[in-house]
Amino acid sequence: MLPWSPHPSLLALSLFASSQASILSFDYIIIGGGTSGLVVASRLSEVSHINVAVIEAGDSVFSNPNVTDLNKFTAALGTEIDWQYESTEQKYAGRGKIAYHGGKALGGTSTINGMTYIRAEKAQIDSWGIIGNRGWNWESLLPYYEKSEQFVVPTVAQTEAGASYVPSDHGEKGLLKVGYSYGLLNGSFVDEVEASWSTLGISHNPDSNGGHVRGFTVWQSTLDREANVREDAARAYYYPFQSRPNLHVFLKTTANKIIWKDSTEIIADGVEITSANGTVSMLKAKKEVIVSAGSLRSPAILELSGIGNPGILSKYGIPLKVPLPGVGENLQDQPNTAITLQAQRAFNGTMAYATFGSLADIRINLPSSSSLKLWASTVSAAINSSLPATSLYQLFQIQYALLSRGVPDAETIIGTTMNFGLGPSGVVGSAFWLLMPFSRGSVHIASTDPKLYPDINPNFFLVDFDLEVQIAIAKWTREFWDTDHMRGMVTELSPGFEALPRNATDEEWGDWVKGSFSSNSHPLGTASMMSRELGGVVDSRLKVYGTKNIRVVDASVMPFQVSGHLTSTLYAMAEKAADLIKEDLLNVKL
Ligand SMILES: Cc1cc2nc3c(=O)[nH]c(=O)nc-3n(C[C@H](O)[C@H](O)[C@H](O)COP(=O)(O)OP(=O)(O)OC[C@H]3O[C@@H](n4cnc5c(N)ncnc54)[C@H](O)[C@@H]3O)c2cc1C
Ligand SMILES: *[C@@H]1O[C@H](CO)[C@@H](O)[C@H](O)[C@H]1NC(C)=O
Ligand SMILES: *[C@@H]1O[C@H](CO)[C@@H](O)[C@H](O)[C@H]1NC(C)=O
Ligand SMILES: *[C@@H]1O[C@H](CO)[C@@H](O)[C@H](O)[C@H]1NC(C)=O
Ligand SMILES: *[C@@H]1O[C@H](CO)[C@@H](O)[C@H](O)[C@H]1NC(C)=O
Ligand SMILES: *[C@@H]1O[C@H](CO)[C@@H](O)[C@H](O)[C@H]1NC(C)=O
Ligand SMILES: *[C@@H]1O[C@H](CO)[C@@H](O)[C@H](O)[C@H]1NC(C)=O
């Protein structure tokens, strides 16, 4: 026993210096054992001679009831398996900091999310190709949506409760179980909901996962119906394969930064990690480093490693490896506001009811396309020109084209105590959000300490049109509860007609929206897959520009918002990423 305890980092340094030979080395190192990272780890380690390491800051949550229990969505929020991030002050919303949640666990955010499985709209995925990403469109992603999925066909009773699907849109042989829980609310309420939407011109969509989301649907979820537990990325992609000798998971281990090879080219040599006991060491990557820490963290890891905006890196004295001003930019998130209502009776079941509408459905006129130039310059100025107005203008034109073609820009959902964690069982919640905001924000390091959180600034309501759409969705949702089918069944609790009367002005609606919204927990775009000229960070093989062997695979790479929820598309993207990596392994020698 030593008479004194050396500081853990000193100990690490001495171990490091004296035992180079004992440095663990792997073919691929994946930073982040989350939703996307575990898909890549699972698929790469199918090949027995490929060694894969996963670095995960959290622990296993295999038997944590806050994760497994289908009726406990929101229980995990604010506990130790939630990173509990927050945004910077939201000045365009007149608000302070907004809470951001993220799973800190093996399985990542899929262990704490709402389990909704709704894919993107076809035209949105096609837009990834339109901005120049070769090989990315709906047609080429659909096989991966299906590859990932193990759809569980609903029972007759579930079908009567509103479950529906189009067989040709689903895969049944994948690893991820998708379907309906036995706790789905049965009885006639679902028919009343459908009838109420029909009054407003919104028809039933028998399956929102076929590339067209518009309409009312009873959504499918990532769950294991027979086991009655959540299906997260670890349950689907890791635990069944955890005995593979070539798959190594480092739990409670933080990835600090990428370590570079001493070379004129930009080649990762490995990753610096901090173990649970505080020891700092290095894992060596023989082939590639794959960054999958999520859209709120992956850009920070790139910046700490020397990849990013030179102005930001120099502020922290980080040696520049690749100047890439798009790192951390293009952050897009949706504002979520909610109405709660007291129903005449208790609902003992899950309502998985979603409705998607276009701008025409919510009776909003698309402004003239001449607004786009102004929006682009407004956003560019707000983000210190990190993305030039000319790039934003190009991106906005594509987004605008989607809206003008009627791609849904509004989603409104209904849930009960069972799926929203609302408290008394007679309370119903209607949450809604704008799907494709024009506002853009950023995620950047605020320190050189990898344990400290980055600055997250989604710039909610920077573009006025976003607020206009959110207000229209709020009114549309209220209208739904005010049809002959619904009136009399419920009483609005919040905001309530006293706070926001029927004749409320748009200004009053706007104040309510800005004062009460939260993040919809769909942040993406912070290492966008698009050309370097546009401000992209990864190419169409998800490789970071300017580097030989670093990729990003997670929500950071999605260049635009989508009308579904993110995980379905992330599982598909990560499946495709694993194939791209395997393909490149055959074709390229480092
Ligand atoms: C409250 C909430 C509800 C949601 N509801 C839904 C829903 O119903 N349906 C849906 O489809 N989507 C939903 N989402 C969104 C969806 O779950 C996420 O977009 C998705 O899971 C993100 O996947 P990812 O692979 O990008 O990152 P993550 O799954 O977050 O994975 C990142 C992983 O990296 C780890 N990590 C981070 N930094 C480090 C580091 N430095 N070192 C080591 N490890 C690190 C994290 O711990 C985490 O495990 C919800 C999100 C939230 C927060
Ligand atoms: C589950 O969540 C509750 C709070 O919602 C918390 O008190 C409890 O400790 C959590 N359980 C675990 C195992 O983390
Ligand atoms: C409705 O759901 C309840 C609770 O899950 C169940 O006990 C009941 O059998 C269901 N009724 C029908 C007709 O399926
Ligand atoms: C800290 O943990 C790492 C990883 O488990 C281990 O290799 C190392 O020996 C530990 N160091 C100390 C000082 O306990
Ligand atoms: C804005 O960008 C310039 C040029 O890169 C830089 O010098 C300045 O520090 C940046 N300002 C902020 C607030 O980031
Ligand atoms: C509600 O449904 C659950 C099963 O989903 C059942 O265990 C419970 O008894 C039901 N409660 C009431 C009040 O019907
Ligand atoms: C709405 O109606 C109330 C009562 O009828 C009235 O006092 C109020 O001024 C009206 N508000 C607006 C904005 O018209």
From TrEMBL:
Pfam families noted in UniProt: GMC_oxred_C, GMC_oxred_N
Cofactor(s), names only, from the UniProt record: FAD
Record-linked Gene3D superfamilies: FAD/NAD(P)-binding domain, Glucose Oxidase, domain 2, Glucose Oxidase, domain 3
InterPro entries assigned: FAD/NAD-bd_sf, Glucose_Oxidase_domain_2, GMC_OxRdtase, GMC_OxRdtase_N, GMC_OxRtase_C
Molecular function in Gene Ontology: flavin adenine dinucleotide binding; oxidoreductase activity, acting on CH-OH group of donors
Leader peptide range in chain numbering: 1-21
Annotated catalytic residues: 522 (proton donor), 565 (proton acceptor)
UniProt xrefs under PROSITE patterns: GMC_OXRED_1 (PS00623), GMC_OXRED_2 (PS00624)
UniProt keyword annotation of Signal present: yes
Key words of the record: FAD, Flavoprotein, Oxidoreductase, Signal
GTP-binding recorded as keyword: no
Coiled-coil annotated spans: none
Sequence ranges assigned to domain Glucose-methanol-choline oxidoreductase N-terminal in this UniProt record: 103-126, 294-308
Family stated for the protein in its record: Belongs to the GMC oxidoreductase family.
Family annotation (PANTHER family): GLUCOSE-METHANOL-CHOLINE GMC OXIDOREDUCTASE, GLUCOSE-METHANOL-CHOLINE OXIDOREDUCTASE N-TERMINAL DOMAIN-CONTAINING PROTEIN
Name of the protein in question: Glucose-methanol-choline oxidoreductase N-terminal domain-containing protein
